[in-house]
Amino acid sequence: MVRSASFKWRVSYIIAYPFFRYVIDVESYGKDNVPLSGPVIIASNHRSAWDPPVLGFASPREIHFIAKRELFNPFLGPIIKLYNAHPINRSAGARGALIKALELLRKNLAIIIFPEGTRNRTQKPLLPLRRGIEWLSYQPDISHKLAIVPAWIYHKGGWRGFKVLFGKPLYPKDIRREDFLGVLKYKMLELYEKKKEVEYGT
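^ that's the sequence the OP posted. Answer follows.
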């Protein structure tokens, strides 16, 4: 069960638990690294359309998502709203998503950001990180209390068998801005290197 969540999230989590745990087989490691209060960005690699809901299920804390308004149709809209999806117009682009993310962080909520900016369809473990997460992390009114939790999703393909590893949080207030993206990339790749430990429990 999630340890920091609204009643709505707890109910939706209970409903989704059998599907995510036993049907698509999601396991998580390092949950204690996710702060249960204050603004948090979970910064993860991104290879699958399943990644947002998998991270939401794996987290010990209630998560908020940013989604294209086109997804909020009569069928899907009520479902993703239940799971804290917040719409933005396609025309707003990346800046619109960042403004919405900042609005959520200012409310001391936890959100997911994929620093690569898009799904990685290459053989490289990680694409170059974009500067949006840096911009968010150094906003003066939240940078002193914001935590960035690097995460890695291990997945061999298909629609089953996800393992999520949460790393120790980074705090922008302790990192020079010019070093931030390099430090975050290093910490994310450290999690990638732990792949065999997670897969085989070594």
